[in-house]
Amino acid sequence: MANNGDYESILKEKESMVEHDLGACIPLIVISCKDGIVFGTKSFLLLNKIAEVYDRICFGAIGKNTKWGALRETVIKQAIVIGSNYAREDVRVENLAKVLGKILDDVYTTPKALPWSVEIILAEVNEKPEADKLLIVNYKGMVKSYSGPYVIIGRNTDNLKAKIQELTREKKFSEMGFNQVIKLVRDALATLEPDENEAELKVEIATLSRKKSGRKFERVKN
After folding, report:
1. pTM
2. For residue 203, what are the CA distances in angstroms to 20, 29, 60, 168, 186?
3. CA torsion through residues 21, 64, 9, 105, sign
4. Considering the domain boundaries, does residue 103 fall inside one?
5. What is the number of domains present in the chain?
6. 63: phi > 0 → left, psi -120 to 50 → alpha, else beta; which?
7. In this structure, how many other beta carbons lie within 10 angstroms of the beta carbon of residue 21?
8. Minimum mean pLDDT among 30-39, 103-112, 187-196: which range?
9. Of 93, 95, 94, 101, which is closest to residue 56 (Cα–Cα)?
10. Can you give the CATH number for the domain in which 185 is found?
11. 87-121 residue pLDDT tens
12. Neighbouring-strand partners of residue 220
């Protein structure tokens, strides 16, 4: 069994490895606005990084798609179990984030296990923008809740935040509709300088609509 010094060293190596990987990932932008929640990123043609989880909840991720793909399947199955055994309204984003956090924490803290280079955003749309929930689950299994109108993960986050602030021109997201916010997300993503392997990427955008009943997820066609 590794002593404390060895264990801490292993965790630091894992952290350095994953931070390097995620620091090169195409950003994922999530914004809460008047009409609901907008997810936006760039992805390869046959790959969707954004997906419906359950009714009011959406999943988005960066990192290794084999890993976040497995996590997405897990969280969807968990949502279905809760919704079937209790009520659909009992499927809450916080509970799903805890499930993902436990898996990622177990992987990260197991000395011989390779870390999963992933970071996830789970979002839940509610009746008013101030009640929306945006949660980030990182590769260590830590869950962080954001009360602000938007979150960004991946590379160039500071530049993208500055660009978004410039594009909003001091408008409040709570007063902006989907069309305005989707255009803003497209414009912000257009400022990214692609790596040599990213020339054929598509813009991927999806929404959780505050106005729709039942399932609120919808993909936005390019």
Report:
1. 0.94
2. 24, 12, 14, 20, 7
3. positive
4. yes
5. 1
6. left
7. 18
8. 187-196
9. 93
10. 3.60.20.10
11. 999 999 999 999 999 999 999 999 999 999 999 99
12. 205
